[in-house]
Amino acid sequence: MRKPNEYGQFCPVAKTAEILALKWMPLVIRELLAGSIRFNDIQRGVPLMSPSLLSTCLRELEDAGIVERRSAEKGRGSTYHLTQAGRELAPIIELYANWAKTWLRREISEQDLDPGLLMWDVHRNLDASYMPDDRRVSVQFELTGMKAKQRRWWVVFEDGTADLCMKDPGHEIDLYVAAPLRSLTEIWLGQRPINEALKAGELTLDGPRKLVDTFPKWFMLSVTAR
User: Fold this and answer.
1) CATH of segment(s) 12-103
2) Beta strands in the chain, from DSSP E residues, in sequence order
3) How many C-beta atoms lie closer than 10 Å to residue 126's C-beta?
4) Domain map of the chain by residue range?
5) Domain spanning 110-218: CATH 3.30.1050.10
6) pLDDT digit string (tens) for 150-178?
7) Rounded alpha-carbon distances, angstroms, from residue 188 to 84, 117, 133, 203
8) Model-level pTM?
C-alpha cells in the first residue's frame, strides 16, 4: 500500500520530494547539518514540532539512509548523525535559504519572531576563539520589550565553548548586549549591519573595550547570512 507522502512515480524528483517535501523535514535536516545530534537539541531548533512527530521524522530519515542512530557515548539515549547521503543534502538546504533571501523579500512577521530559537541559533555559532583562554566570560543578552521570562539570556564562554543559559548562572557579567527582538533577529540574518544598529541606538553594548570592539567578529552571523 502506498504511503500518504508517496507520489507513485519513478522520477528521481518525486523520490527526493517524498523525503524533503514532508512538513518539518528540511528543518530537521537543517538542525542536523548545524551540528545538533541529541534529540533535545534538535527539538530546540524546531520548538513548535511535537516530540512524537520529531521521532517519526528521525526514524524516516534513518530508514532512508540519511541519518544513523548511535548509542550515546555518555548517559542513556541515542545520538543522530548524518550519513554521507545526509551531508550531501547541505547544498540543497542552502539553496532553500538563498532562494528565499533573493525572492522572498518580506519583512519578518511578528508571529515568526522567536526569542528562544534566535538565542539557540546565536549561541551555537558564536566564535569562542576571541575570548580569553584563562578565564570564564559571561555575556548577558537582553531582548528589550519582551516579557520577563523571554527577556534575558546568558551565554557563558569557557574552555573554548559557548553555553546558553535561560536562567541567571550567577556569574559576574562581563558584557551586556541589549536590543529589541526584531533588531537582533535582523542583525543575525544579515539584514541589518551591526554598525548601523549601534548608531541608531537599537543595539547597545556595555562592557570592556576589547569585548565591545570584537563583537562583530565573535558574534558571527547566521550561516544563511554568511
Assistant:
1) 1.10.10.10
2) 67-71, 78-82, 137-144, 152-158, 161-165, 175-180, 204-206
3) 18
4) 12-103, 110-218
5) yes
6) 999 999 999 999 999 999 999 999 999 99
7) 29, 12, 26, 12
8) 0.87
